[in-house]
Amino acid sequence: EAFNENESPDDVLGFYGRPFARSLCHAWGAGPSSCLTEICFGLRPLSEGWTVWRCDPLTSISSGSTTLETDHGKIIVELDTKEI
């Protein structure tokens, strides 16, 4: 699925002759997800393997949620400024 500058706009999403069959999801495309978890929700490990962690979300976030999978289970953060 390499970039081809000769492809028409209609062909960009096609794959094997099927329209809209090409996936634009790549491993390096998930980078923003980790930034949201780390920067916006402030989740950071304080020990190896996330056995101890910290949550210090940005104060400008009024609501949102994120889930982080660790070897020790899920860390689920749900923010809502209307509830404590």
Task: Write up this protein.
This protein is α+β, with helices and mostly antiparallel strands. The chain has helices at residues 9-12, 31-40; strands spanning 43-45, 53-55, 63-70, 73-80. It is elongated, with a radius of gyration of 19 Å. The model has no long low-confidence stretch (mean pLDDT 83).
Q: Helix and strand string, N-terminal first?
A: HHEEEE
Record the strand order, biggest sheet: 1-2
Helix/strand/pairing class, anyone? Answer: alpha+beta
Q: Low-confidence runs (pLDDT<50, min 5 residues)?
A: none
> Residue-averaged pLDDT, rounded?
83
What overall form do the CA principal axes indicate? elongated
CA radius of gyration is 19 Å
Percent of residues in helices: 10-25%
Question: Between the first and last Cα atoms, what is the distance in angstroms?
Answer: 47 Å
Total strands: the figure is 4
- What's the multimeric state? single chain
Strand-helix topology:
Elements: H1 9-12, H2 31-40, E1 43-45, E2 53-55, E3 63-70, E4 73-80
Antiparallel strand pairs: 1-2, 3-4
